Amino acid sequence: MQGLTADLIRGMWYVACPGRDLRPGKFITKKLMNEPVLIGRKSDGSVFALRDICPHRGIPLSYGHFDGTTLACSYHGWRFDGAGTCVDIPSLREGQQVDLTKIRCGNFACTESQGVVWIYFPQKAETPSEGGYPAPPLMPDFAGAAAPKFHIMLPFTCSTDHAAFGLMDPTHAAFVHTSWWFKKQASKLRPKEKSFAPSELGWSMVRHRLPPQNIAYRLLGTEVTTEITYRLPGFRIENIRGERHQATGLTALTPNDESNTEVHQFFWISAGWAGGLRPLFEHLMRVFLDQDRLVVIRQREGLLHEPRLMMVNDADTQARWWARIKDSYLAAQKSGTAFANPLEPMTLRWRS
Length: 352
Ligand code: FES
Ligand SMILES: [Fe+2]
Prior knowledge:
The chain is built from five helices and 18 strands. The chain is α+β, with helices and mostly antiparallel strands. It folds into two domains: 12-121, Rieske [2Fe-2S] iron-sulphur domain (Rieske Iron-sulfur Protein), CATH 2.102.10.10; 150-351, Naphthalene 1,2-dioxygenase Alpha Subunit, Chain A, domain 1, CATH 3.90.380.10. The strands form three sheets. An eight-stranded antiparallel beta sheet has the order 11-17-16-15-14-13-12-18, covered by helices on one side. β16 (246-257) and β17 (260-269) form a beta hairpin. The longest helix has 26 residues, at 278-303. It is globular and about 80 Å long. Residues 54, 56-57, 59, 73, 75-76, 78 line the site of FE2/S2 (inorganic) cluster. Keywords: 2Fe-2S, Iron, Iron-sulfur, Metal-binding, Oxidoreductase. This is (2Fe-2S)-binding protein. One of its GO terms (molecular function) is oxidoreductase activity.
């Protein structure tokens, strides 16, 4: 749990990329969950995800040509549709019968919701029920068609566990996030007390009022409240409600493999003017997240020596919860039983 690698959780939706990264007729490739994945958008606007390996001789399909409907392999020109089924073998002559529908490169369930492209990585031998896999999580206060105003992604050279610990770590900000615009001084730590309660596949910091001096949140109107939810397989969802506007932030961890993780940050804001702030906000988000990225690069130097690590109350209690939830979820999957959230409501106190 605490080392260089982490168990990957299958049977879950993961963030692949923001929808804006996929123009019609284009595709991108990534290693996600240890699999080579090709994610594309057809000319009709729909998104799809294929295993990026040609079943003929194994060359990545991404070297081939995508015409907006089918993808032709670069080696012998076999063509595959968005469902991963072969639709043409150019070398075949009349009378040479091959059942093309039996030739598949493998695909992943892929959907676009709220401007985010999601991919489902099933468990071994898992097949979707008639209605498909359960839908990916919906961001509160925003409709299915609402695209995020801001997005950034940075690759972290750490397992999802350490990326998750960073997400839910309430006490590193004063030491790590020390920009002029986010001033926190380690010498001025203040006592904090927050209530938590179990929620779906994780827990939530119960909705509470933000201090009025918080400028970013004041843009949303007076009486601003926030709720922060953490859940498997690595999401932090912060929902901020003001009298004038609402904002929801999603930080999503997508494993490339057991020891590398993509960290995505999205922001939906109901205020129309927020779009104009995109260059500034995305720059600030990147500076902030890059500070976390630098920490895990340095942390790796120590983890290579496999140290025994520690957790202290209450600052690391959420990291403990992460470990408990993940272990019980994986155990339930293994035994084929229903997952029961092992957490109980609790108030945590720390200094930050
Ligand atoms: S290797 Fe892809 S068509 Fe032959
Ligand atoms: Fe951080």
